[in-house]
Amino acid sequence: MNKNKQSPLPKNIKIVLIGRGSIGRRHLKNLQSRKFNNIVAYTSKKNQKKDALFLKKYHMRTIHTKKEFYNEKPEIVLIASPTFAHRENLAMAVQAKAHVFMEKPLGHQLAGWQSLGQRVARSQKIFFMAIVLRFHPAVIKIKQMVTAG
């Protein structure tokens, strides 16, 4: 991430991070390096040791219930949870009327995603799927070659 580029977003925008594993922590470190300071972690699994670590190391609270999640009124939800939880997490973000940044893949199965995809489209919020090599020059060139036949 280019640390010199300024973000057009206010630094106090409310962000809820779903997923405290290695990918979630990487996103958290990137956000904090850009001085975003209103981030809360959400996980349905209670782990007092990990909650204390996140509070001490990253200066952020962890919430555990859907009620707490909705009470936060997130403007952005960053989904870095295990793949099996992506659909439920995305549904929560849509219901909260938040913009979404979600790690790939969508899920293990396509079944059930069509109606949620329609809800995302109707929400008029930004939905961005993280695909690591999406903008890599080699991938772009291969796509152009395949498209051209």
| Portion in beta strands | 15-25%
> Average pLDDT value?
90
Instruction: Give the termini separation.
Output: 34 Å
Strand order of the largest sheet: 3-2-1-4-5-6
Total beta strands: 6
- Class by alpha and beta content: alpha/beta
Helix content: 40-55%
Order of helices and strands: EHEHEHEHEHEH
Low-confidence stretches: none
Question: What are its keywords?
Answer:
six-stranded parallel sheet, single chain, 149 residues, 42% helix, alpha/beta
Question: Quick gist of this model?
Answer:
The chain has helices at 22-33, 48-58, 66-72, 86-95, 113-123, 137-148; strands spanning 15-18, 39-42, 62-63, 76-79, 99-103, 127-130. With 149 residues, the chain is α/β, with parallel strands linked by helices.
Task: Describe it.
- The chain is of the alpha/beta class and 149 residues long.
- Helix content is 42%, strand content 15%.
- It contains six helices and six strands; from the N terminus they run βαβαβαβαβαβα.
- The chain has helices at residues 22-33, 48-58, 66-72, 86-95, 113-123, 137-148, and strands spanning 15-18, 39-42, 62-63, 76-79, 99-103, 127-130.
- The protein has a six-stranded parallel β-sheet, with helices on both faces.
- Strand 1 (15-18), helix 1 and strand 2 (39-42) form a beta-alpha-beta unit.
- Helix 4 runs parallel beside helix 5.
- The longest helix is centred in the N-terminal third of the chain and has 12 residues, at 22-33.
- The model has no long low-confidence stretch (mean pLDDT 90).
